[in-house]
Amino acid sequence: MRRIMFTYFTSDPSSKALCSPMLLSTFSHFSLFHMAANMYVLWSFSSSIVSLLGCEQFMAVYLSAGVISTFVSYVAKMITGRFEPSLGASGAIMTVLAAVCTKMPEAKLAIIFLPMFTFTAGNALKAIIAFDTAGLALGWRLFDHAAHLGGALFGMWYVTYGHELIWKNREPLVKAWHEMRTKNSGKGGGGRSN
C-alpha cells in the first residue's frame, strides 16, 4: 500500500488528473451525520468568511484548503502506515472555522445543543487544535485529525499572511502560471495537440 501511495505522488507530470482525488475529496463525507455536522459548521461560519474575503476569494481558499488538508492527511497516513480514506471536506471546513476564529477571536460561540455554555472563538480554536494534535499524536481514529490540523493551520496562515501575499498579488502569479503552462505545452509536457 505504501508503494501505491508513493507512486501516486510521483506519477507522470503530464497527467492532468494528478490532483483530482485531492480536489474531489473536498466534497466527500464518511456518513450522513458527518455531512450534516460539516454543513452546519459551514453554514454557521460561511457568512462571516464571505464578508471577510468575498465570494471569489472564499471559493479559492475553500478549494485550496480541501487539497492542502487532504495532502496533509496523505502524508500523515504514509508516515503512520494507516491507509484509510482521506476526506478533505472536514479539513476545508476547518479552514473556514480557523480563519473566522483567527480574525474574530473575541466573538462568542456556543455548541448547538448547549447554547447556555458560551466561549470565545479564540479559545474554541485553541481547544480544537489541542484536541486534533492529541488525536494525531495518540493515534485516535475518531476523525481525520491530520486533515483537521492541516485545514486549521492553513486557515490561520491565510487570514494572517496569505491574503496579502497571494490574493492581493495574484496578477503576477496568474501570469507566471500561464507562462509556465505555455512553456510546458510547447515542449510536449501535457499540452493538447489538435
TrEMBL record:
Record's subcellular location: Mitochondrion inner membrane
Membrane topology qualifier: Multi-pass membrane protein
Single biological process term from Gene Ontology: signal peptide processing
Primary localization: mitochondrion
Ranges where the Peptidase S54 rhomboid domain occurs: 22-162
Gene Ontology cellular component annotations, sorted alphabetically: mitochondrial inner membrane
One MF annotation (Gene Ontology) recorded for this entry: serine-type endopeptidase activity
Keyword terms, alphabetized: Hydrolase, Membrane, Mitochondrion, Mitochondrion inner membrane, Transit peptide, Transmembrane, Transmembrane helix
EC number from the UniProt entry: 3.4.21.105
Catalysed reactions listed for this entry: Cleaves type-1 transmembrane domains using a catalytic dyad composed of serine and histidine that are contributed by different transmembrane domains
Transmembrane segments: 21-43, 49-75, 111-131
First-tier enzyme category under EC: hydrolase
Tagged with keyword Transcription: no
PANTHER family reported in the protein's UniProt record: PRESENILIN-ASSOCIATED RHOMBOID-LIKE PROTEIN, MITOCHONDRIAL (PTHR43731:SF14), RHOMBOID PROTEASE (PTHR43731)
Similarity section: Belongs to the peptidase S54 family.
Protein name: rhomboid protease
Organism for this UniProt entry: Urocolius indicus
Source species taxonomy: Eukaryota, Metazoa, Chordata, Craniata, Vertebrata
